[in-house]
Amino acid sequence: MQPYRNRDYAHHLLERLQQEATRPVSVMEVCGTHTVAIARSGLRELLPKNIRLISGPGCPVCVTDDLDLDLVIALAKEPEITMATFGDMMRVPGTGSSLLEAKSLGADVKVVYSPTDAVALAVANPDRQVVFLAVGFETTIPTVAVAVEQAVQQGLRNFSIFSLHKLVPPVMEALLTDPEVRLDAFINPGHVCTILGTEPFRFIPEQYGKPCVVTGFEAVDIMEALLMILQQYNQGRPSVEIQYKRAVRPEGNAVARGYIDKYFTPVTACWRGIGEVPGSGLALREEFAHLDAQRRFPITVTPGKRLKNCSCGQVLKGLKLPYECALFGKACTPMKPVGPCMVSTEGSCAAYYRYGAQRVGGAV
Amino acid sequence: MSKTEQEQVILLGHGSGGTLTNQLIRTVFQEALHNPILDEMLDAALLDLGQGRVAFTTDSFVVDPIFFPGGDIGKLAVCGTVNDLAVSGAVPLYLSSAFIIEEGFPLADLRRIVASMQEAASAAGVRVVTGDTKVVGRGSADKIFINTTGIGVVPPGRSLSPRRMQPEDIVLVSGTLGDHGLTILAQREGLSFNTPVISDCTPLNRIASAIMEAGGDGVRCMRDPTRGGLATTLNELAGQGERGILVQETAIPLRREVVGACEMLGLDPLYLANEGKAIAVVAPGAAEPVLAAMRSLPEGQGAVAIGRVTESGRGLVLLETELGATRILNMLEGEPLPRIC
After folding, report:
1. A-B interface: how many C-beta pairs under 8 angstroms?
2. What per-residue confidence (pLDDT) applies to A360?
3. To which H or E segment does residue A162 belong?
4. Which of A88, A103, A210, A221 is the most buried (most CB within 10 A)?
């Protein structure tokens, strides 16, 4: 870890960035872990003024649509259901309430650390219907596929998943085709690319002429990646490069992808703040429909009203920085989040709030 | 057929005030905690406090799990209250302990908890002088809850307060941060790590008095960063003292395994609870002698300076990051929830 946190090397990189940043460039970090690393290290404050970092939709919790969540909350309130979820989904607001509120009112909601924990929960509680709230990008999806496989092998009749999975390349394409969004390059999500490799991102330089660098999660990784991006940008040779070589291979992880394909098929998904993106979600394949909570427990809810005055949509598209939202830090805080970006520890707004980037950003 | 000690459990009758209660008090509480004042068994303990202002504090303990690496709810209930007295500049003297026990709780576990309270009390030089036991029906409480109230005496002339903080004062911590919070979380969620983490739960009265002896009037204030962790405690100090605090990220002592686990879980160790760490703000000239005094004790071996008090940025805690950038270190908002990936 040490070389990636070396201050001298960091300052050397900052000098190099200063030399290369001869014109304004807007770079989106797609992944929430990058947003956190940038805010936590205070990197934004040190970068040349010409480099504008924009936080993308990179947190699967944040982009979960509020109407989808209304369905999840309604299902969680059913007496026979135990809803198993990752911790940071607890506070995410639907249009009316959250899983945390539902739990305090008596819904059986359990925090788990992995999808296989949810399978174990189903095995241990045969009289409960355990529904795993499957939220995540390509990084987490293979582990859900493994859980589904376990449930199939064990013939579990009281386990199912509520798939709200999201896929990264389709939403990056959606952002590139959105006329409102102006981006010059991408810091690609390191974890997602350990699974996907570089191939699914080649359309970005090839069709849209934008540099992409697969990046690790230390501040120095991000600086190295920015340098690679600026060199591509300045030399006019956009491509997908890997900075995060210690973890990512160009071909990714075919075994993990095989698991995803075996159990899931792409569907249109609704991203909070962005809207419907074709082929950006995953549903269980027809032969595993009995493990699909949405098909097994048809729930309808009266659609609630979406959040007002919340700029998360624009934040997720990189059109606004978190502190440019009227609610930021006032009506909307990590304790009482209004929008999704404030909810997860990886949400752009939460990262800005927690690490005080508003102060630095405000000065830019 | 009589049950073996192993099989015995707490019954509702143990809290009724009758024979069973009496038996429980005699055979469990009094046997472990006995001292002349408790042994009087009066309705109220009568105490001689001598000179100085009385420090008085209370805390309830509901930790889950009740046994964890490095301690248990009994040790925690003693240390928590002793530490609040100690960092206020008081010499902790007497504790009360009130138990709320769920029906069916194993008697052997209760004995273990009370023995551990006695051990901690004796290490801290305090006596448990009065107590109470209530038993509630199954499901009305989670196993066992303990409330302790403590009384101590602040020697005449001693006054600790964040309002005494001056610009350039040094902020010291007695050792690694986040160990207790992570231990509890790991136990609660059944997470295991290659290097196990152990709670730092320990009485702080010895190190607190060493700090005051070495630093004298140069000791401005002390705190124990329990719930909300270092970040929250420093924010309280900055707010109450109406000063800024600037902390060096690289100086903050953190165990490698705590950092690793926090990265995995998406938690920030600066927000995790500690149960055996002291923060002291001291005048620049007092920093070296106080550090030396802290390091001379096992509970202060890892003591270091992590930052300083500033004139500007009143009420604000700033962190200078490893890269040399500065960011705001906010208070804890809500419960820390582990993240997804």
Report:
1. 101
2. 40
3. strand A159-163
4. A88
Residues of chain B with C-beta less than 8 angstroms from the C-beta of A359? 327-328
ipTM over 0.85: no
* Residue B102 to residue A219: CA distance in whole angstroms: 50
Looking at A285, A308, A331, the residue that finishes a domain is: A308
Closest CA to A43 of A239, A208, A224, A197: A224
Rounded to whole angstroms, the Cα distance separating A31 from A139 reads: 11
> Does residue A353 sit at the B interface (CB-CB below 8 Å)?
yes
How many angstroms separate the CA of residue B256 from the nearest CA in chain A?
11
Residue B138 and residue B201 share a domain: no
The answer to the question of residue B293 being in a domain is yes
Is residue B340 less than 8 Å (CB to CB) from chain A? yes
Cβ pair B327:A219 closer than 8 A: no
Range of the domain at B254: 162-328
Residues B308 and B167 in one domain: yes
Per DSSP, the three-state class of B23 is helix
Q: Residue A313's pLDDT is what?
A: 81
Q: Does A139 touch chain B (CB under 8 A)?
A: yes
Could you give the number of structural domains in chain B? 2
Q: Does residue A282 sit in the same domain as residue A320?
A: no
Give B-chain residues touching A46 at CB under 8 angstroms: 323-325
% of chain A with per-residue pLDDT over 70: 96
- Whether omega before A278 lies within 30 degrees of 0, making that bond cis, reads no
Mark whether B194 and B308 lie in a shared domain. Answer: yes
Q: Is B157 on the interface with A (CB under 8 A)?
A: no
Residue with the larger pLDDT of the pair B293 and A339: B293
Distances (CA, A) of A175 to A24, A184, A297, A302, B257: 20, 12, 34, 30, 39
The pTM of this model reads: 0.83
pLDDT at A4: 52
> Is A87 an interface residue toward B (CB < 8 Å)?
yes
| Same domain? A211 vs A345 | no
Smallest Cα distance from A87 to chain B, Å: 5
Taking an 8 Å cut-off on Cβ atoms, the answer to whether B334 and A191 are in contact is no
Residue-number span of the structural domain to which A334 is assigned = 312-359
pLDDT digits (tens, 9 = 90+) for B173-224: 999 999 999 999 888 777 777 678 899 999 999 999 999 999 999 999 999 9
Q: Is there a contact between B334 and A88 if contact means CB atoms under 8 Å apart?
A: no
Distance CA B10, CA B15 (A): 9
What span, in angstroms and rounded, lies between the C-alpha atoms of A57 and A62?
A: 8
* Cβ atoms B136, B105 nearer than 8 A: no
CATH number of the CATH domain containing B194: 3.90.650.10
pLDDT on residue B2: 58
Query: Which uninterrupted H or E stretch holds A169?
Result: helix A168-177
The shortest CB-CB distance from A46 to any of B325, B328, B333 is to B325
A257: pLDDT strictly greater than 50: yes
pLDDT at A354: 77
Is the Cβ of A35 closer than 8 Å to some Cβ of chain B?
no
